[in-house]
Structures are given as C-alpha cells and as structure tokens.
Amino acid sequence: MDDFEELLAEGSAVPTEGWDFSWFEGRATEERPSWGYAGLLADRMAKAEAALDLQTGGGEVLATIPHPPPVLRATESWPPNLEIARRTLAPLGGTVVESADTADLPFEDGAFDLVVSRHPTAVLWHEIARVLKPGGTYLSQGIGAGSNRELSEAMMGPLPAPTDEGIAESADAAGLDVITLLHESLRAEYYDIGAIVHFLRKVLWTVPGFTPERYRPQLIGLHDRIRSEGPFVSHARRYLLEARKRAPVQTPWT
C-alpha cells in the first residue's frame, strides 16, 4: 500500500513528551492566533511578583519569557513531562509541582498575583480564583469547543454539535471579572498520515482512546484521501481569556 506502512510506523514511534511540535515542520501546519500568547505571557510575567503556570507540559512555552518573576511555580500531571519541565524551567528559577489536572491546587490562598495556562485540559475556576490575590490576573489561551472537529469526525464519525464553553459565566461565578475574551478559528493542514498519527497520539482529547491499530481503517482512508486530494484540512479553535479577581466586598459595621 505504497508508503502507508512506513508513515504509520514513523508517526507511531515519535516520542510524545512535552509540547515541542517541531517534528511537524514540513508535515503539518496550523495558523497561530492573532493575539500572540507568548508575547502577552512575557509581558505579564515581567510585571508579576509571584506567578503560577498550570499544566505547563514540558515548560517549553513558559521558558520563552525573558524576565521571570521572583517567585515562579508550575504544575504538571504527566510524569514524563515533569522531568522535562524541571530541567527546562530550572534556569528561570521555576519550581514544578506534580498535580493532577482535576485536583485542588497545592498552594495557599492568595499565593499568586498571576496565574496562566496554555491549552489546559481542565479549568478549575474556583481553585484559580482561590490562589489568586485580590486584583490578581488569570491569563489563558484555551482550546475552543469543536476544535479539530473535522479530524475527530474523520476518525469517529459524526459528532454532536459543540456546546458553548460558558467561559464568561464560569469566570464570573468564581469571582473573576473578564477583561478580554476572544475566539479564533485556525486552519490546520496535515500533509501525510504519519503527521496525523503523531498528532492524535500527542493531543489525546482529539480522539479519546486513539491507537493506530484501533483506527487503522480510518487511517487508510485518510491516507488515500491525502494522496489523491492533497492535505487534510481541519480547524483548531482557540480562545484568549484575561480575567481579574474581584476584591472582597467590604461590609460596613452597623
């Protein structure tokens, strides 16, 4: 079957640790959001006294900041990423704490004036608000509802329409005032089936439970489609949120 087996084996063998996507160069592309998360992150970090990066992956994005705050902490849940993140963030004075994505954060109330997260798998709104100081900021680039829906449906068949994330409502309920909330749809192109296999192994929520063996018929169909029609096109959804923790309401003595 021409080069299908070779590409399948290649995409299956690439390590998935960390959030370094350089392997995809020449094999897949994805538009970047217009707001430039890395630049916003660097700006906010340079002004912070104590900052926390949630679900840091291998720390690759956080490591790009030129001026880290005096106190820099990060969380990560996946053991292979923990050691990568600790090595990556050590030059910035960052400390990485193992913490499950859905667990309460292992930090004191009001410990940080800045909390950030890029592509979190779970957003614990009340925990984020709890560890922020009054007036502190939460900055996040998140994955929007229905992200890469075309690729998910190519593997799993028709899916229910995505529901609204309720971001503004969730932030408000946790005591956070939304400053900025933007959404964008970004074109993604996959030039060979090896790139699709590696992406699905790395970005697990696109097709839950994905393995090349389980989805072999669908992969063969996509491979043939790419060979005859050109790159497979999907669309990643992203949102940018910046919110500020409300100060507690002062109740006057009566």
Walk me through what this model shows.
With 254 residues, this protein is α/β, with parallel strands linked by helices. The chain has a single domain (4-245), classed as Rossmann fold (3-Layer(aba) Sandwich). Helix content is 31%, strand content 26%. The protein has helices at 4-13, 37-47, 79-89, 125-131, 149-156, 167-173, 193-202, 216-229, and strands at 28-30, 50-54, 71-76, 95-98, 112-118, 132-143, 176-190, 232-245. It has an 8-stranded mixed beta sheet, with helices on both faces. α1 packs parallel to α7 (193-202). The longest helix is centred in the C-terminal third of the chain and has 14 residues, at 216-229. It is globular and about 75 Å long. The mean pLDDT is 94.
Can you give me a brief rundown of this structure?
This protein is of the alpha/beta class. 31% of the residues lie in helices and 26% in strands.
Observed structural traits:
Rossmann fold; alpha/beta; 254 residues; eight-stranded mixed beta sheet; single chain; 26% strand
Which class of secondary structure composition applies to the elements?
alpha/beta
- Mean pLDDT, all residues: 94
**What topology, given as strand order, has the largest sheet?**
1-7-8-6-5-2-3-4
How many separate helices? 8
Helix content: 25-40%
Keywords: Methyltransferase, Transferase
Domain Methyltransferase type: 52-138
GO biological process, one term: methylation
Pfam families: Methyltransf_11 (PF08241)
